[in-house]
Amino acid sequence: MPAPSSTWPAFLDVGLSKWSGDVEPIAEEHPMSKTVCIRFMGTVNEQSTGALLTLIEGKLKEDTSRFVLLMSSPGGSVFHGLSAYNYLKGIPAEVVTHNFGSVNSVALVVYCAGVRRLCVPHGMFLLHGVVANFPQGAALEEKQLQERLKQLKLEEENIAGVVAANTGKTGKQVVAAILDRTTLNPEQAMEYGLVHEIREPLFEVGWEYHSI
Predict the structure, then answer these.
(1) Helix 78-90 crosses helix 46-60 at what angle (to 10 degrees)?
(2) Which of 67, 78, 90, 161 is most exposed, with minimal Cβ within 10 Å?
């Protein structure tokens, strides 16, 4: 599974629903509303996030009121993952994220953009540290290494901040989970505050569907 990278664009019983806390189920779609379902499967990078945001921008112009983002991703670019998260959080539409396989590394940041976060019964999540990629033969002075280390720490803190803000954990707790390379199954992810519902069906008849 690819680790998140500090460089870019090279670069986180079946049929029954389980609930945690006081989270409400997804409201039934209003007759005048429009739901667009998008399958996002692959690495988080410049091309994939660019395609995702371009598609969403176009559908917003068509008065789409809800996006369901089906996700299975090994992670990728911290830069593009954080950008996608902030964009999805800021659009005038409801965003639902649904893990249909494995959501790892910085992909978990994008997943956190969902106001409702779902997972299939046999899904998985992985939190782990940020990796610095160096060109072959690169030679860095001490100051340059220190600057790169500061960048890695800041990216790690930003990832932890997003996860903490959406799970009720503290930043320190999330950093500890990242450093421990924490893997969560759906039940553990619910207990962690990451998942709201374990749900097998991915989309409904009548929804507009796209694939990235």
Answers:
(1) 10
(2) 90
Question: How wide is the angle at C-alpha 12 spanned by C-alphas 11 and 15, nearest 5°?
Answer: 135
Residue 15, in any domain of the structure: no
Per-residue pLDDT tens over the stretch 147-162: 766 767 778 899 999 9
195 touches 118 (CB < 8 A): yes
Tell me if 12 is assigned to some domain. Answer: no
Q: pTM to 2 decimals? A: 0.79
Structure tokens at 18: 């389980």
Question: Is 78 domain-assigned?
Answer: yes
Q: CA 91, CA 130: separation in Å to the nearest integer?
A: 27
Q: How many domains does the chain have?
A: 1
Owning domain of residue 97: 32-131+140-211
Locate the DSSP E strands across 53-93: 66-73
* Residue-wise pLDDT tens digits, 62-114: 999 999 999 999 999 999 999 999 999 999 999 999 999 999 999 999 999 99
